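Q: Glycosyltransferase family 2 protein, please. Structure only.
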Amino acid sequence: MPSTPEVSVVVPTLARAALVTRAVRSALAQTVTDIEVIVVVDGPDEETGKALAEIGDPRLRVVELPAKGGAPNARNMGVREARARWTALLDDDDEWLPDKLAVQLEVARDAVVPSPIVASRLINKTPRAEFVMPRRLPEPGEPICEYLTLRRGLFHGDGFIQTSTIMAPTELLRRVPFTVGLRRQQELDWTVRATSHPDVDLVIAAEPLVLWHQDEDRPRISLSSPWQAQLEWLRGIRPLITPRAYAAITMSIISSMAAPTRSLRVFRLLLAEARRHGRPGFLDYLTFLQIWLIPPQLRHRMRDRILGRRNAAQDGQPAAGVAGQPAAGVAGQPAAGVAGQPAAGVAGQPAAGVAGQPAAGVAGQPAAGVAGQPAAGVAGQPAAGRPAVADQDGPDGRARSTETGADVRR
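A: Structure for Glycosyltransferase family 2 protein:
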């Protein structure tokens, strides 16, 4: 293995040997081979150590921490071990498509600031459906915090970032470490804090490059965090976000954690919090009410049915989950990860999941968007064909790279 790899991959894990092995194999299968994969085991875990030793790849390093400190701490420890200029994050229950790092390195080369955060779309795989997120890319002048939190419909995922999509300069991840002790919204917290630095951009590759395995039917630590702790976190980052984003987080993320209390007092408290320190919109109130009135399992089933069908309709394919059929969201191609088949987003091919249209950034073609519409760019104009050099000035400007189809926020 070269002394300085091109990308370091950091994977925190604990007591999930089968899952982390799958994640690591997807990283080692990247078309970019000059990498190191650092698995940080968050405490003593003999089974995981044995499973990883069987992989037998010299690019894999395992760091076992003496005691459990949580995923943010494990990520920070992995970043300290990283030797490459770039570090890519991977959760132990997710997978990468083979060209993930290759696409992101190309996007990074086109970035207009020294420290770009390079994210991507992903394929959200729930027990009942598959669909691509985020459903849209940032618009010109849109604050990052609002892009990541405001809804344009009843379901989250219009704007979105997830840990396994993130590649960033190792120096930036050391300068702005993950918040130790935070159990939910770790990537949102980190992105908001990192993009408050003037040399940092958020860049989103239009292709889905990650398989996000969201098994909502099994217990997850991140879903059991007390709502009071999350509200304190939100109050702490209030100076970094807009009133619109503050209201959206309070009435969706915090409320989804508090709603199981069925407490009218808590309902009123969060509503007052959003109105006192934020600026709620109509969809925020609607989201707030549905979270408190509809059980989460029913909301998830409604989301999967509606979004899964929408993706299938865009691609002209049967809805995800039909035995023997391609999964929704893969534009007429076999589902990503099916043995022996090309995954979505293979180099030189149109990105999957966009109604049979070429990926964003193909010269002369509209960028991938929702339901056959151009992706967010100049209003009413296709994004393709714009120069890679930023033509928007100021803290909320954004440019599109015609080579990669990525949206750049600065």
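A: Brief note, in case it's useful. Residues 296-315 form the longest helix (20 residues).
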